[in-house]
Amino acid sequence: MSLWTSAEAAAATGGQARGDWACEGVSIDTRTLQKGDLFVALKDARDGHEFVAQALEKGAGAALVSHVPDGVAEDAPLLIVDDVLRGLEALGAAARARTLAKVVAVTGSVGKTSTKEMLLAILGNQGRAHASVASYNNHWGVPLTLARMPQDTEFAIIEIGMNHPGEIAPLAKLARPDVAMITTVAAAHLEAFENVAQIAVEKASVFEGLEPGGAAVINADIEHAAILMAKAVDLRLRDVEFGEHAHHYKLSAVKVQADTTVVQAEIEETPLLFKLATPGRHFAMNGLGALAAAEAMGADRALAVQSLGRWSPYQGRGMRERILLDPADPRLTLELIDDSYNANPTSMAAALDVLAASAVTHDIGRVSKGRRIAFLGDMKELGTDAVALHAGLAHLAATQELDKVHCIGPLMRSLHDLLPEHQRGDWTESAEEMLSGLRARLDPGDVVLAKGSLSMKLGLIVDAIRKMGHPVATS
């Protein structure tokens, strides 16, 4: 069964279909376009209409456009609409309307993508599941995810993000979730908000899109949980709390080990023990919240716990891997924690906790003592408190457990200046500059963390470390 026929897409958007065509997928990027996709000519840094001819040459089944682009034949397979983004939104709304899928929306200042992937792991083992790709959670990412949803989907997981006030509610109303989960509320995107309480109000607006009788899954441990709970009450929703202070999914204890996290919880006073194949207290919280959301979607608890046990973070989101530095000696490895995709003070503190708790290996390198080493890049969009929030990292207990901290970016200079001499590594303006002499800073037995906002390009550090040797799966 095709995802979209010309007749269906025209009916959904009110557009004019040129030709009789059928598409198997939806794409916004010719670099990842698959044969048979509907290419959507969005305007971003470049106008997508410039790439329509290329998309059709690569095998696109049709293109969603606002006019016939230059170099494209009048009889090419097209869907012509007044506005391409509005057309994509209409496709998303139609895809949501024609499916019987249960839909969960996930938002929060930290942990959205990891929690979405946990839910995909759980629900994908209990039915036909569909989810946002990567972090496609904005004004085009949400409608794109919906437009890609097959009609026979049983569970859909939609990640919803924001940078400014007023962005979440329209996306939630488009997704029409049966369950909406807020992972946490923290200092992120403070340039656009006066304080964290305002961020909580914006996150709570995800509940405005819930279907009648929907469930609001709320982290009960955050400072502004009352704002989220009040919104659920105002909308007469069923609230489901998770966390140490929760009434429903109560976190009793977390034991973080070298490669696993053991979680003890009580669900409506019934004890539950589950494991995650990755270390981190924040993953324990996300896992418990994902379990609450999945059960609200009708998932089986026992199967869900098994799925959580097999889940692990992926690239840029806390993924761990062992790098073999010398193929002739399998002992000569270091461990890399790739958390390079993004950062704010809450997620940075969580990542530093993981690094501080990591087990190093002694007596295998030129430095006899295995070390915990961090490469930290600027955290962006923190507003007027940015310098203080970076400097504050020096006072975290986890930071004080580290052996060496290398800092990247002008804001991280404030942390670098506060570090004691034995911990103070190098400071550079950019990740590119830090690459010089990188190998000399590392040794077998070390555990290395790379974390910063995406624009700081900590991924360059990660890639360079990988290229020092041969990655070996750790889970």
UniProtKB/TrEMBL annotation:
Predominant subcellular localization, coarse grouping: cytoplasm
Residues in Mur ligase C-terminal domain copies: 335-453
Catalysed reaction equations from the record: D-alanyl-D-alanine + UDP-N-acetyl-alpha-D-muramoyl-L-alanyl-gamma-D-glutamyl-meso-2,6-diaminopimelate + ATP = UDP-N-acetyl-alpha-D-muramoyl-L-alanyl-gamma-D-glutamyl-meso-2,6-diaminopimeloyl-D-alanyl-D-alanine + ADP + phosphate + H(+)
GO MF terms, alphabetically ordered: UDP-N-acetylmuramoyl-tripeptide-D-alanyl-D-alanine ligase activity
Keywords: ATP-binding, Cell cycle, Cell division, Cell shape, Cell wall biogenesis/degradation, Cytoplasm, Ligase, Nucleotide-binding, Peptidoglycan synthesis
Keyword Zinc tagged: no
Leader peptide range in chain numbering: none
Binding positions (ATP): G108, S109, V110, G111, K112, T113, S114
Record EC number: 6.3.2.10
This protein's pathway: Cell wall biogenesis; peptidoglycan biosynthesis
Domain Mur ligase central residue range list: 106-294
Subcellular location: Cytoplasm
Family: Belongs to the MurCDEF family. MurF subfamily.
Protein role: Involved in cell wall formation. Catalyzes the final step in the synthesis of UDP-N-acetylmuramoyl-pentapeptide, the precursor of murein.
Protein name: UDP-N-acetylmuramoyl-tripeptide--D-alanyl-D-alanine ligase
Protein encoded by which gene: murF
